[in-house]
Design brief:
Mean pLDDT of chain A: 95
Structural class of chain A: mainly beta
Distance between the termini of chain A: 41 Å
Number of strands of chain B: 11
Radius of gyration of chain B: 13 Å
Distance between the termini of chain B: 37 Å
Largest interface: A-B, 21 and 25 residues
Low-confidence stretches of chain B: none
Order of helices and strands of chain A: EEEEEEEEEEE
Largest sheet of chain B: 7 strands, mixed
Strand content of chain B: over 45%
Oligomer: heterodimer
Largest sheet of chain A: 6 strands, mixed
Mean pLDDT of chain B: 96
Strand content of chain A: over 45%
Chain lengths: ~110, ~110
Amino acid sequence: KQEVTQIPAALSVPEGENLVLNCSFTDSAIYNLQWFRQDPGKGLTSLLLIQSSQREQTSGRLNASLDKSSGRSTLYIAASQPGDSATYLCAVKDDYKLSFGAGTTVTVRA
Amino acid sequence: GAGVSQTPSNKVTEKGKYVELRCDPISGHTALYWYRQSLGQGPEFLIYFQGTGAADDSGLPNDRFFAVRPEGSVSTLKIQRTERGDSAVYLCASSLDPSYEQYFGPGTRLTVT
């Protein structure tokens, strides 16, 4: 069974600092990996999707890397802003179902 | 275009009651998924439909849970004899087919008192 772990569980940084969020998974036979954002009481917003054949994906201030062989992904958020405060979830896909980590809750202090 | 919609957004029910949660996927998406998210946890897979049939229901916790998708579009998750431990956010997602990205609805928050 795929196990997905996210470290740290929570993170608080001052505005302007870069954020580094980690995700690890136990089974490297994945189809793709996806990073989501979840605001309190809301659904999931997809941020980045990395196919298993890719090493990284970028969108604006966000960059995600994938090392499938070691079972790791890292989400980098540059120059954090208070609006980046949310819970970030990573999920790995095998065939069709997503397996999620518990998330990292980020607080960006103004 | 319209995204995945779920109704109701909130549902409060008493222990032992029956509830139905509805999911309207994106038009044309053949694959539909249900996940459950407990407080402080990531979503957990419940069931996957390809068309009208449940291709994988291995995530349903017990036989009180059942889901249908009779016409290959709207799906209903049904929970009998609800228990307080069923309280969670139930998320629905759909995709063009299983190899494509899943798009999530806003979820239904179920509270069992």
